[in-house]
Specification:
transmembrane helix; about 65% helix; magnesium ion transmembrane transporter activity; four-stranded antiparallel β-sheet; NIPA-like protein 3; about 5% strand; about 375 residues; transmembrane; membrane; mainly alpha
């Protein structure tokens, strides 16, 4: 009877945490799309206001706070093995919103060719999410301060933290001293910091929920330690991700960061909170299969993302008007014979109208010099 009650409570907690995590990730995706729409709309007008002066951007910011708050609370109810892989819901929602709001006019054949991988990735992500939620760990404990201290001083956790610190120092040495700017090295640094973050987030969230329920946990020293360890790695994670965005493609960063961060978060939950101790082999294998489907689905979704092209201008001179025109360098290999000649570049094919800039061409001095030259040579024969 006690076991059934305990498992019933764990099932209810897992359901609450899973729904909160899904809701939070969906809300964050919607908010980011709203903020991006605000930036694009403001850039396409002559409005001189900053982006944070618009109501649309603030609406997205409020939704972001609500979504991240839901994600934070979900760690108090569900295991890390369930909450961490649910970040795939954010990628899935962003992909669906992109197809809805950024759709282009194209033939069905071209649409299927371009978005076929994204559709397959969405199906794999949905199926994988169902598998790891259905077969994920069902054990959950109330994270009191005493329980967190007991987990922290156990030898498996200490050994795990030691290996993580050594690995992080080695990768940081190669990154700083050897200039190893590989994407895997940078994202491994982010994932190692992320594993510490999710451990501390779960501890802080659990103690806050217990405090709101009436059991004070904030006066324990372990709460302050966990809070500092939760905030500090986030700053370094943002720094490493910023460096990665400058050196590598954003689609690769999104997929590999999700995979590496999720793997290390699940391992951290299994070591620190012993989340898989009461699970059998079948449930573990099905959970791993669902996670693999999510990894593959996210990779396919981000792989098919349209890459942004840098602006590569070139100048053409209209032979009739004598006005230079700036174009965007396209993919055409043969310039058009349209009555203009280009300086060291090709005619654009981006479909956008070229931006014309008027230039005051001072031709009067040239004419005067030619006139003076003609007066200085009276003996030359004129045609």
């Amino acid at each position: 009877m006690d076991m059934s009650t305990a498992y019933g409570g764990s099932y209810t907690d897992n359901l609450i945490g899973t729904l909160l995590a899904i809701f939070g990730n969906v809300l964050v995706s919607i908010s980011l799309s709203i903020q991006k729409y605000s930036h694009v709309t403001l850039a396409g007008t002559k409005d001189l206001r900053a982006f944070y002066h618009t109501k649309t951007w603030w609406c997205g910011f409020v939704l972001t706070c609500l979504g991240e708050g839901a994600n934070f609370i979900s760690y108090a109810f569900a295991p890390l093995a369930l909450v961490a892989p649910l970040n795939a819901v954010s990628v899935l929602t962003s992909s669906i919103l992109g197809l809805i709001f950024l759709r282009e006019k194209s033939k069905p054949k071209d649409f299927a060719k371009r978005y076929g991988l994204s559709f397959l990735g969405c199906l794999l992500t949905i199926g994988g999410t169902y598998l790891f939620v259905a077969f994920g760990p069902n054990s959950h404990e109330k994270l009191k301060a005493e329980n967190i201290v007991n987990h922290l001083v156990g030898w498996p956790v200490l050994l795990y933290l030691l290996l993580e610190i050594i690995t992080f120092c080695l990768l940081l040495y190669f990154y700083k001293q050897r200039n190893a700017n590989s994407l895997i090295i940078i994202l491994m640094l982010v994932a190692l910091l992320g594993s510490v973050t999710v451990i501390t987030v779960k501890a802080v969230s659990g103690m806050l929920v217990l405090t709101f329920e009436g059991t004070m946990q904030l006066d324990y020293p372990i709460f302050s330690v966990m809070f500092v360890c939760m905030v500090a790695p986030v700053v370094f994670q943002a720094s490493f991700l910023s460096q990665a965005c400058k050196l590598h493609d954003s689609s690769l960063i999104a997929s590999f960061n999700y995979i590496l961060s999720t793997v290390l978060a699940v391992v951290a939950g299994a070591v620190f909170y012993l989340e898989f101790n009461k699970e059998d082999i079948l449930h573990i294998c099905m959970y791993l299969l669902g996670s693999a489907f999510c990894f593959l689905g996210v990779f396919l979704i981000t792989k098919n993302r349209k890459k942004t092209k840098n602006f590569e201008p070139y100048v053409t001179m209209d032979m009739v008007k004598g006005v230079p025109t700036i174009h965007h360098k396209g993919l055409v290999v043969q310039p058009d014979s349209n009555g203009s000649f280009s300086y060291g570049a090709l005619v654009n094919n981006d479909g956008a109208a070229p931006a014309t800039h008027s230039v005051n061409l001072e031709l009067t001095p040239a004419r005067s010099r030619s006139t003076e030259a003609s007066h200085g040579q009276p003996d030359l024969k004129r045609d």
